[in-house]
């Protein structure tokens, strides 16, 4: 069971700084995702790497996609 809690931060948190923090996290996430996608799209890597390494890469990529969705939603709420 998921519960959403809304906390109004205006007046307590510098919203401009929070936007910058989220944008920086998005940029880091994009770079990490691009690196993983590049590795996983390399047929030699996928063929030669242990299966558990390839699966871990795919799982990490999925986690990063979920995190990206959350970050973009948070950024949208601050705008």
What can you tell me about this protein's structure?
By secondary structure, the chain is mostly helical. The chain is built from three helices and no strands. Helix 1 packs antiparallel against helix 3 (51-78). It is elongated, with a radius of gyration of 17 Å.
- Average pLDDT level: 91
Silhouette: elongated
Number of extended strands: 0
Proportion in helices:
over 70%
Instruction: Spell out the helices and strands N to C.
Output: HHH
Number of helices in the DSSP assignment: 3
Q: Tell me the strand percentage band.
A: under 5%
Question: Which structural category do the helix and sheet elements fall into?
Answer: mainly alpha
- Nearest-angstrom radius of gyration? 17 Å
Determine the N-to-C terminus distance. Answer: 28 Å
Uncertain parts: none
Q: Largest beta sheet, briefly?
A: none
Characteristic terms for this protein:
mainly alpha, 79 residues
What is the structure about, briefly put?
The chain contains three helices and no strands.
What secondary-structure arrangement, pairings included, does this model have?
Elements: H1 15-40, H2 43-48, H3 51-78
Helix pairs in contact: 1-3
């Amino acid at each position: 069971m998921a519960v959403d809690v809304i906390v109004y931060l205006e007046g307590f948190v510098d919203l401009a700084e929070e936007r910058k923090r989220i944008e920086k996290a998005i940029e880091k996430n994009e770079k990490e995702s691009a690196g993983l996608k590049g590795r996983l799209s390399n047929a030699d890597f996928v063929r030669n790497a242990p299966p558990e390494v390839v699966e871990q890469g795919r799982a990490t990529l999925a986690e990063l996609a979920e995190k990206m969705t959350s970050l973009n939603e948070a950024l949208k709420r601050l705008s």
